[in-house]
Amino acid sequence: MALSASNPSDRVEQLIILTERLTELIALEAQAFEQHRPQEAAQYVDETSKLANVYRHESARVRADPGLVSAAPLAQRTRLIRATEAFDAVLARQGRALEAAKTVTEGLVRAIANEVASQRAGVSSYGPGAAVHKPGLATSITLNKRA
Question: What domains are defined for the chain?
Answer without folding.
Answer: 8-125 (1.20.58)
